[in-house]
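Minutes, methods subgroup
Present: GH (chair), OT, SY

1. OT presented the first of two proteins processed in the latest run. Sequence and structure tokens recorded below as shown on screen.
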Amino acid sequence: MYGYLYIIVNGSHTKIGITNDLDKRLASYKTHNPSFQVYKTFEADYKEAKRVETAIKQLFKDELSGQGKEWFSVPPEKLELYVSTLLAKPASEKLTPSMHEVRLTDEAQKLKSQILDALENMEGYSDKANPIKEQLQEVFSNRFKLGIPSHKLPEDISVRDGMSVDLNCCQKDSKRAIDGIKNNYVKMPHDDHVRSFYHLVRLSTGHYVAIATAKASLPYPPNFDGYEDEIVNAANEVGWYCTFHHEWSWHQPDGTKLVLFQKKTPVQTILRDWEDSFRKFIIERSKLLSQLPFNDREVLNKVIEDITRDSTFPLTVKSLEDFCDCYLGKFWYYSLEEIDTDKFLQAYKLLFSEWNKSNR
């Protein structure tokens, strides 16, 4: 089903919305706000349009105009830029802007100069530089289509996933990948001043799961120069792309480097897999599922908590057998042959059974 994203303006105030019937929606505005003007409209798949609208409203939630809960003190061309970026599909899902040179914009150049001025005036450190650094992160994220910087995430986050091992693309026998899966955390060699970028999955409750699909590390030269191959190889082990964009560095613009890590599985695939995933089902119903009849309440709660917190949890599994083959048996050494005696496997079996019932 297709819908329409629209941007309208009223004086210095801007609003973004979504509708199935554009003419009817715009006509309704004329009855209570006849001075508004249509700035731009976009036709898109309704679910995709809704995702973009939600992301834009969260990005600019601190710039509400006071005219209402849906009007922003943001220039319409800025909203258009973000909408165009979020709606844009790359020529191939396997290509990202980070794979070629992305020119440093005039705005980015100005922000870098402002950061340097702020740092110099305070002998190398200043709280005044931090908001400018965040602005440059936003420009960087927009130019590279990375998602939402961590400082722009909404408050209604139920689960925040870190940048995890890409299970689809990692070297599954690599110690780094195995450790990253078991620890639910991946640290790259020589990381410094790390910032993550997220995409949102909206739960049925209206809250969100924030999924880190990219992160930037901004090390000083002594912690980077000569280690490029080691960093690239480590990224390959856990299933990430690794590219260098030093001219964009915001921590110390005339000193630090910038290493960008991105999951090799395309973001569109991750978001699509999330929508109907077993893990989403567990997160949305965790309190209810914890009350299911089971012979060991503590084990059941532990399994639900593990699924909720496990940022590497495979999103495409459809059954306990499938889950054991690709993940539980491979990395945690469980065997379905033990199901009659293992309470953890029995808890997983119960949860998969509830999920299958909900899908009928």
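2. SY then presented the second protein from the same run.
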Amino acid sequence: MKPVRVALLGATSHIAKGLIACWTPRKDRELLLYARSPERVREFLMQLGKSQAEVFPIDAFGKEKYDVVVNCVGIGSPQKLKENLEDIFRITSCFDVLILDYLAGHPQTLYINMSSGAAYGADFSQPVDEQSQAQFNVNNLKAEEFYGIAKLHAEARHRALPGLNIVDLRIFGYFSRYIDLDEKFLLSEIISCLKNKLTLVTTPVDIWRDYLHPHDLVSLIDACITDCPLNAAYDAYSSKEVSKFEILEFFAATFGLEYEIDKSYQSLAVTGQKSRYYSAGRKAQRIGYVPAFTSIEGIKAETSAIFAAR
């Protein structure tokens, strides 16, 4: 049986690196990797010790034939997102349309788009589920809503094309050993503090998050490939969410993290403050998705890999 030819756009992103690491050892996947900086992708492949993937500049997309296209293009950095609000819609739309144009001539190809839980809006006082409705203040739109609106707009465009195979995966949280430790995410800040022997400063407010392990994201994509043809959106989830203070206690007990509670501390929240940013919906079960990792198990596994590589 021929391997599934997978085109991956945005191959230098955090999510893409985890997919590449999981897929390159497999004989049933043939990877074609597209990025604005192909040399960075080649460097990453060398670090993995893998060579069975082709690398292209992103403007070369569409010249080959693909069974699956995975879109990981986007602004993944909170700071860059804050500084380039006007680019959110342009970048999201630009590459989405590029892929849709390809699908117009190759309707059997499956398009996997990395969407976001932010498509539900900004109210995460409770987790969302299959009955939840997107909530945006249309008469007073705020900057922190732009990212979610861009994702929702792309999803609506995809549902308007029911004859094409398109899946939107709403990612609420994701963590791997390939995370950029200079970014302002909770887990990157924790690990950066450990590496630099610094004290983490955080607020007294607890929050709940759901972190996907790369193998579970691959498992979800594989389930979509198996269930094709389909046109749908799925919330991505681990086996169990985790609270901020559970995470802090784990790092304190395991790695000696020192942290300080400061009521006046303001964390960077470009897409808004979210208390319970995860989904209780289990629609993906219908296509055979069963996550292998809880959030804390995934954090433990990937963090151990980070410190083992020192």
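Chair's summary of item 2: The radius of gyration is 19 Å.
Next meeting: continue with the remaining queue.
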